[in-house]
């Protein structure tokens, strides 16, 4: 056997090794590319979620600011409260105890709110939910003929406020009433001060059904 035969023999044995090495490197490169693509996909998805969340927060901040501007006068006068986008009105201002008839002060307050709320709704695709709440004490015997329980009293109060807002210019299609009775208290019902806080009406702008933000 001469030298050329030895070289040819070595080359013949080395070729499969390089082929296997090449396949291994190609596989590793493919796996690396796949991992990189997945990582980029997750990063893009995370960035999109973050962008969407930032947009939602900005929209909510703009919504609160618009509502605060619309209610600047009654808020400054302390006649209403605004928390988490809900306008709160003390039941003592609107109604006498266990009554669903508006008091003169309450009627004037709703008249002052109707214009700003109508303007706010005209600029946004939202509706008003008017919610009635009571304390946990049952209605007096003298009013049982009119209201079966606190649910009915809170419902009638919410309807009364809703009708008053509509009469003063809020579009009828942009407002609806809800009743919660003694549910969802904001203070303890163990004392008179807490019960007074729980007797309230809240007006909450909310997106129309089917509207996404």
Brief description of this entry?
This protein is α+β, with helices and mostly antiparallel strands and 213 residues long. It has six helices and five strands.
Describe the fold and architecture:
The protein has about 210 residues and is α+β, with helices and mostly antiparallel strands. It folds into 2 domains: about 1-70; about 80-205, 60s Ribosomal Protein L30, Chain: A (2-Layer Sandwich), CATH 3.30.1330. About 55% of the residues lie in helices and about 15% in strands. The chain contains 6 helices and 5 strands, in the order ααββααβαβαβ. The protein has helices at about 5-70, 70-75, 90-95, 105-120, 150-165, 190-200, and strands at about 80-85, 85-90, 125-135, 175-180, 200-205. The protein has a 5-stranded mixed β-sheet with strand order 1-2-5-3-4. Helix 4 (about 105-120) packs across helix 5. The longest helix is centred in the first third of the chain and has 68 residues, at about 5-70. The model has no long low-confidence stretch (mean pLDDT about 85).
């Amino acid at each position: 056997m001469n030298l050329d035969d030895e070289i040819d023999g070595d080359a013949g044995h080395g070729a499969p090794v390089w082929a296997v090495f090449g396949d291994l490197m190609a596989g590793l490169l493919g796996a690396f590319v796949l991992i990189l693509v997945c990582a980029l996909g997750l990063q893009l998805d995370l960035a999109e979620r973050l962008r969407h969340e930032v947009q939602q927060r900005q929209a909510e901040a703009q919504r609160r600011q618009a509502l605060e501007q619309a209610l600047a006068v009654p808020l400054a006068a302390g006649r209403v409260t605004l928390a988490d986008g809900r306008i709160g009105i003390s039941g003592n201002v609107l109604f006498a105890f266990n009554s669903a008839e508006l008091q003169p002060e309450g009627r004037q307050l709703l008249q002052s709110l109707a214009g700003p709320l109508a303007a706010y709704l005209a600029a946004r695709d939202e509706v008003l939910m008017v919610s009635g709440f009571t304390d946990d004490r049952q209605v007096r015997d003298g009013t049982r003929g009119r209201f079966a329980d606190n649910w009915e009293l809170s419902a009638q109060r919410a309807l009364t406020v809703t009708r008053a807002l509509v009469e003063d210019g809020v579009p009828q299609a942009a407002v609806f009433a809800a009743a919660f009775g003694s549910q969802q208290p904001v203070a303890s019902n163990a004392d008179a001060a807490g019960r007074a806080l729980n007797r309230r009406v809240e007006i909450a702008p909310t997106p129309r059904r089917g509207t996404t933000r």
